[in-house]
Amino acid sequence: MTLTPDAEVAVDPLTPPPPPALAARLADGAAVAWSQPIVVPTYLPEAPSTVPMYLDHRVYQGSSGRVYPLPFVERIASEPTDHTWQAIHIENRYLRLVILPELGGRIHVGHDKTTGYDFFYRNKVIKPALVGLTGPWVSGGVEFNWPQHHRPATFLPVETRIEEHDDGSVTVWCADHDPFERMAAVHGIRVHADRSTVEAVVRLHNRTDVRQSFLWWANAAVRVHEDYQSFFPQDVRYVADHARRAITAFPAADRPYYGVDYPARAREVPGADRIDFYANIPVPTSYMIVDSAESFFGGYDHAAGAGFVHWADRRFSPGKKQWTWGNAPFGHAWDHLLTDEDGPYVELMAGVYTENQPDFSWLLPGEVRRFTQTWYPIPGIGPAHQATTEAALHVDLDTTTATVSTAVTRPVTGRLQVRAGTRVLAEHTTAMDPGEVYRLRADYRGEAVEDLVVELLDGSRSLVSWRLTVPDDDEPWTATEPLAPKDVPTTEELYLTGLHLEQYRHPTRSPLPYWREALRRDPGDSRVHLALGWHAYRRAEYDRAEDHARAAIRRLSLRNENPRSTESWYLLGLILARIGREREAIAALGKAAWDGGWRAASGVVSARLRAQRGDVDAARDDVLALLEEGANDPRLVAMRILLGRRRGEDVSARVSAAQVNSPLDDLLRHLTDGAVPADGGLAVDLAMELAGAGATDDAIALLEQAATSEIGPCGNVRPIALYLLALIADRAGRPETAASARRRASEVDRRWCLPHGLDAHDALVAARQADPGDGLAAALLGMLLYAAGRRRDAVNAWRDALQTGFEDATLHRNLGLGAYAVLGDDDLAWRSYERARALDPNDARLLFEQDRLAERLGRDKQDRLARLEAAQRLVSQRDDLTVELARLRTAAGRAADALALFDGRSFQPWEGGEGRVLAAWDEARDALGLPRTEPPTSLGEARPVVLPPAALREDGTTDYFATSLPELLLFTREVDD
User: Fold this and answer.
1) Mind listing the pLDDT tens digit for each residue in 853-881?
2) 3-state DSSP helix/strand/coil percent for the chain, to nearest 5?
3) pTM of the model
4) What domains can be seen in the chain, in order of their start residue?
5) Nearest CA to 103 among 163, 162, 45, 143?
6) HEC string of 445-464?
7) Fewer beta carbons within 10 angstroms: which end of the chain, N or C?
8) Could you report the per-residue pLDDT of 716-735, keeping only the tens digit for each?
9) CA separation (Å) from 9 to 35, 111, 745?
10) Alpha carbon 689 to its chain's center
């Protein structure tokens, strides 16, 4: 084994050498980790839009691209600057890793010291493109995506901690909260002292009171070229597109896929149908394996003689996927947008509790999921035909000889063996080290190939074994579009179709028509009433939710007072708690606890209610009973500690013990040393957790701090923190504190304040009840309701805000959006946008939206042109406005002036704008009689080899499987749910 010299590592600015004390430990054989910033040329995102972006109909990775309550970034700096990034470095004798906590805790560098090979794509710059859910997204390394893809927190920071273990291994813990539903995720990057493996040790926790959908995909990027091959287990015969809308054979595509006729290409160039090689894929393409009994996959660089393996137990990690921009000018343009010099990459993605995208699973309230994923570099064995976390095998078979190549992940005395049945054909025992290739040849003449077994053993323990697999050739199923509700044959299918649409967060189909049709046929269907009850509860429609919950209970109790599931009682308890009927809520939750599936969740809520009422001993007894029964919900541990503290107990030992299982838990850290998260949203979460346990004074103190927190990429919680403080103070009988907090809420900075969730809803409703003249509360409540789908209620709240005399540009903009989409009042929509622009004439986003509205309303093109010409400073700030100005100039016979807008400007493709820059450029050139040519790289896009299918059908309906729907991003007539 040859190790890369330390001097070579030291000169790399991304991988500085460890501090002297750690260097000594590294030399002694331990794995080490340390925090040390790195300076990376970075194209920084510009400030996000100040208006809320309601993009729930946006198609993103096959599901809804809803971004609210996060601010949305629409532009990236066109030039890099040297930026200092927090970085955590991990090293052992075989590996070197760099983790970037400020970018979601992603692995930025994965380097194999034994071969000098970067087994993960190393991007020497941070160059975001507008690919992420909230805008910026960077390529390279490994991104951990949850609760959807790409992760909402891709460009947000995580909290970190380095843990050194007694066995010489180290773990870098990265913790974040899902910014949508506030679920908690921790991923630990673990490196052992004596192994070449990289482990992701993951804990997901649904810390909410409702069932939540989620998925987890780890996105590993690898540098590619003509000799890079993605490999999957030998039993993989077919792969599928997003949502299984199309399939093809693998590795040789046997039909057109993504519009590319691979069999025809192979007839011209043999092998051109092999989609396991990046070089053969000319268009942006995803494929996910349909099924496999194996737990590994990976990629291999034939030119470098190195690659990597991913392994995770296929029982919970069946997802295996490749994505590429495509090896053609269109894809190369995207490569250029994402790096300066590091070239193309593909993503080899591993899904846990998911097989496809979108393919969401469920987490029950309080539920915890734990799992691990493992990556490791492989030297020149070739693509792995079998792999475990211990070793990988490659087997070449000719007519008479089996040639076996293997590599290990830790030092072993390995016995490599080729057998035919029980007869040993060849065997060799030797000391093996990571980074080395070990080979064995065996003559198998006279033996059946299917009888061959290749195995690597360490003593009597099998590290990895292989035998030939012949995959099943039966074609798998492909997805179909659901029938219209009236055509669905059964109420069960209506219920399940609605559930699917909800679970998979479908961007253009609502579950409500299916559930309403089911109730039309059977008005008492308990499944549908329960689904509608949850839907209403999430939208804070408490009265409607209660009606549905009680209707479900009536049907369930028709023959059986003790149904198999008590979920309806649990929902009823949550609703009653929200509307202040605590005694009834506790009773309903008590009934819910009769079912073991809902006992822990209902017990948490019941204990919380008792604690808030001051009955600390009863709450403690509830919690202790659940813990003694083995309930695995970290919320119970937190409640036990908080209630103990309220009783005057010394809880320090319990806190220390809890921190072992819950690294980076904000509550435990706060109880240890009073630490408060720097992020305002996390501070609010912590305050509400304390308030839930009846620790009112602590909660108020934390909300006071949150009200002065920094306004960052997660938004601005200052006004909402004060409204929540007022709500808690009112419930504690402190009306003067509450009134002061509400008054102060109107005085703090409200930029990027995007209220979200039931607590914020209840606080804003309470504020309006306390002071009907609080226009800010009405304006913020409207934003929350609009994002929740209660759009007519939102428009009414915005009108109420104006009636109080409150106004700002965002309020008028929101009302204009709702007037068009919900009320169908085009005049009000136009007047609202005119007023918004008058209040904030320097907001280019408002000018863009007003121009979109003008086009929707059929306004004269000359008027639109004049408006944009008069505001060219604003137009120049946005690519989409520049494109619209160019198109209007071309339409007005000024094509030369239109073409001039493209000179010297670097465009960045944006969601919903795919192809618009190139189309406008072509329009201007066509008008001038210039030939169609390949566009300059400054346009940010190139001509696609194949045009994607149109999202809108000829009859005006939307393709159920559409991948891009720019028409639905703004100004779509909607039916209020």
Assistant:
1) 999 999 999 999 999 999 999 999 999 99
2) 35, 20, 40
3) 0.95
4) 6-378 (2.70.98.10), 390-466 (2.60.40.10), 676-806 (1.25.40), 824-832+841-968 (1.25.40)
5) 143
6) CCCCHHHEEEEEEECCEEEE
7) N
8) 999 999 999 999 999 999 99
9) 17, 10, 52
10) 24
